[in-house]
Specification:
Elements (H helix, E strand, L loop, with lengths): L11 E4 L5 H12 L3 E6 L3 H13 L4 E5 L5 H15 L4 E4 L14 H29 L8 E6 L12 H21 L4 E8 L8 H4 L2 H8 L10 H12 L10 E4 L14
Parallel strand pairs: 1-2, 1-4, 2-3, 4-5, 5-6, 6-7
Helix pairs in contact: 1-2, 1-8, 3-4, 4-5
The structure holds nicotinamide-adenine-dinucleotide (NAD).
Amino acid sequence: MSDPNGLLAGQTAIVTGASSGIGAGCAVALAEAGAAVLVNYHSDKEGADAVVAKCEAAGGRALAFQADVASEDDIAGMFAAAVEAFGAVDILVSNAGMQMDASFTDLTKADWDRVIAVNLTGAFLAMQAAVRQFRAQGMRTSRALGKIIVMSSVHDVIPWAGHANYAASKGGLSMLMKTAAQELGQEKIRVNAVSPGAIATAINKEVWSDPAQAEALKKLIPYGRIGDAKDIAEAVVYLASDAADYVTGSTLVVDGGMELYPEFRDNG
Ligand code: NAD
């Protein structure tokens, strides 16, 4: 149930790419923690409506809103809708992301451009709009003026063959997050990242739904299981809350140990 005394009571969050997977999990967890949530979707209205229903079932307020995060106009419309519905925006979870995979020389410029536009430029545009909104509304219920969490990936540090566009977008996102945190800290705006490892969602369904591929994937995870959206959502709620008031410019890696060079676990 949405907790009126919860960690995020009285606050408002925007979650991009929230009609499925990790974003959907984050939206519901934020609502359970007491936040009103704008559930952004790109094309899956039904999915977004189902997430809104789950937020409401948890006792929270929620609104589905269509926007392409790569469009500056759409981002402006999304923030205006959140302010109109809920009065303010305290938390941005920039989660929307995509893969368009190809071997290095088969990767087309169009697929390079689209992944960078959504995963990196889309985050930049949403973060910029969030900072402007935080400044305009001033201090509210939280110790921070505003909180931004970007959904990065273990591939902001682990190179990934066949995914040059995706890995480059997440590496860039990591530096975007740190630079924004450095620049905006004096205004009491906190900016952090969550780096998921392998989380079972639509983005990697062909891997985890195939038993042989799922077993091979688990060999890369010291903790021995594939993650789920809730694993990531819990980390996002923490970073959005005052419990993390002294945390900025950090990446919270939620990966079952995938970044721990698992090939070396039996002595290399
Ligand atoms: P997903 O495909 O379920 O979610 C991605 C969401 O982004 C979808 O809802 C999609 O509609 C949305 N989206 C795509 N383009 C958009 C656009 N232009 N505008 C608005 N929304 C758009 O997959 P997911 O695993 O839930 O991915 C969520 C985030 O987590 C992504 O940034 C992804 O890179 C990251 N991530 C996922 C994993 C994993 O293992 N699943 C691991 C590391 C990072």
